Structures are given as structure tokens and as C-alpha cells.
Amino acid sequence: MTNEVRQVMDKLESIKEIKNYIQSNELVLIYFKTEDNGICRELDSLIESVSEKYNKMSSAKVDTGNLPAIPNDFKMFTVPEIVVFMKGTVVVEQSRYINFREIEEVLSNYYKYI
């Protein structure tokens, strides 16, 4: 038996991976961030807590610093940004000032359908 620790959130590293992830999973939370942003570093544990709470939901982190095409493909203007998709459709999108109460409300409403 191994003492492997389950990673709470997947890590996506390409536009194709992100799009496939969104299309392949029913309820998805994507956390767009950069490693050099202090706010993003502060939010990491909060985002992971939400992912643990809604563990049937698929969740992933994307380091936008490694993907310069992200703003064009996902119409992003700043990080951090959290986007929740239900069956490929955006149901909540928040950037810069993240309202976790609203995100939790949306997740609890959609979570019962997966």
C-alpha cells in the first residue's frame, strides 16, 4: 500500500487540454492563475478547499504565465480568475475580486445534478 497523496486539483498545461477537460466533465471549476501573483498564491488553499468540498466536481489549475494564448481563447483580462462550467457552458465567472459565497451558491445548485 502506498502513501500517495491525492492531488486535489488537476493541472492543465495547454489550450487543448483545457477545452477537452471542460467538454469531458459535467461540472468543472477552472482556476486561472500565475505563480508570480501574490493574490493567486493566497487563494490557492481556498480554491483547494472548495474542490475538496465538491469532490465529485472536476477542478483544475492553469498557470496562465505558461500559456500566452489563454486571454484570446478564454477572453480573460486578469488573474486570478475562476470559471465554473456545467456541461460545457459557463455558469459563473469571477476574476480579480473573487466572491466565494457566490461561487459556493452556484456550485451547490449544480452539484446535485452530477
Automatic annotation (TrEMBL):
Residues 18-95 form the Thioredoxin domain. It comes from the Bacteria. Gene3D superfamilies: Glutaredoxin. Pfam families: Thioredoxin. InterPro entries: Thioredoxin-like_sf (IPR036249), Thioredoxin_domain (IPR013766). This is Thioredoxin domain-containing protein. It comes from Clostridium felsineum.
